[in-house]
Give the backbone structure.
Amino acid sequence: DAKTTQPTSMDCAEGRAANLPCNHSTISGNEYVYWYRQIHSQGPQYIIHGLKNNETNEMASLIITEDRKSSTLILPHATLRDTAVYYCIVRPNYGQNFVFGPGTRLSVLP
Amino acid sequence: GAGVSQSPSNKVTEKGKDVELRCDPISGHTALYWYRQSLGQGLEFLIYFQGNSAPDKSGLPSDRFSAERTGGSVSTLTIQRTQQEDSAVYLCASSGRVEDYGYTFGSGTRLTVV
């Protein structure tokens, strides 16, 4: 069980912000929210993760709701190279594997 | 190297033959994971190594699949008597402190069983 729900696909215009939602209503207090993406024919790439505070790095921002039951990954200025499958994962204790669901296929359109 | 290295990048084998897939994790990473991804499908967890602990083999689909990790570094995934349904991309990942970095994946080995 992936424990997360994401839309199957989304489109975004190049240069606009891409907002990818994720529901994780059964998340536990010690579980982090991780985001990965997989560009065609490549291995998944780590993007960002967080516990309860919003996080930002050079790739994206992660907004987690106060009740932690959902989150949004924001790519502030999407480019064509951001076209990929984006995976939202909640992870139990350290030392356990990630469970990848089907993810969201983001298409950035020119 | 700086990343996770997998070899070979592509492997074509005949049904019934054994294959070995290799993964060189990032130096110093204590955790190593194997996943596979069939065409158009999501990632399927296979096995996980953490330091000197017994591996988590709960994802291995059959007893034809096995994996070793020697000296806490290089790992080999072996598939015996390959079947056509074994055709997939086999991905290896390693991690140090997951809370800091998450996983780093290799580029995978594309296995085709003919």
Notes: The longest strand of chain A covers residues 84-91.
